[in-house]
From TrEMBL:
InterPro entries tied to this protein: Adhesion/Biosynth-related (IPR050904), FAS1_dom_sf (IPR036378), FAS1_domain (IPR000782)
Species per Swiss-Prot/TrEMBL record: Methanolobus zinderi
Domain annotation FAS1: ranges: 4-133
Name by which UniProt lists this protein: Fasciclin domain-containing protein
Pfam families according to UniProt: Fasciclin
Length: 135
């Protein structure tokens, strides 16, 4: 089995999250999510950004406060596997807002479906989701 890596390097190796990683880089969060934890990251795959016009994404990247709010809504302190999530109705994010968790026919976080779960990291876990979460 491959050796586990931190959240950032694991996300980079997966290759499914370039826009999310770009946002983390713009905000100076790479070191934090390489070294701190544990965290659970609900990471939108690249196709989740397809419905959003490029100019809207570019504007979001320029508004660091807004972007940080969005990023922080995708992250919870602690490590929550899908087994853990099945027993929860909500989960507090690092933004202080709560994500709604449901597990009828697969786990959903707010309106996003977890499409790849339990990606283990040295300092947490990643769940790939099919939509961007908005607080």
């Amino acid at each position: 089995m491959a050796e586990l890596n931190n959240l950032i390097d694991t996300a980079r190796e997966k290759g499914s999250f370039p826009t999310l990683l770009k946002a983390a880089e713009i905000l100076g969060l790479l070191d934090k999510y390489r070294n701190e934890g544990p965290y659970t990251v609900f990471a939108p795959v690249e196709s989740a950004f397809d419905p959003i016009p490029d100019d809207v994404i570019d504007e979001s990247f320029e508004d660091h406060e807004y972007l940080l709010g969005i990023i922080n809504y995708h992250i919870a302190k602690g490590k929550y596997t899908t087994e853990d999530l099945k027993n929860l109705n909500s989960l507090e994010t690092v933004s202080g807002n709560n994500l709604k968790i449901s597990s009828n026919g697969g786990i959903k976080v707010d309106t996003a479906r977890i499409i790849e779960s339990d990606i283990e990291c040295t300092n947490g876990i990643i769940h790939a989701i099919d939509e961007i979460l908005v607080p």
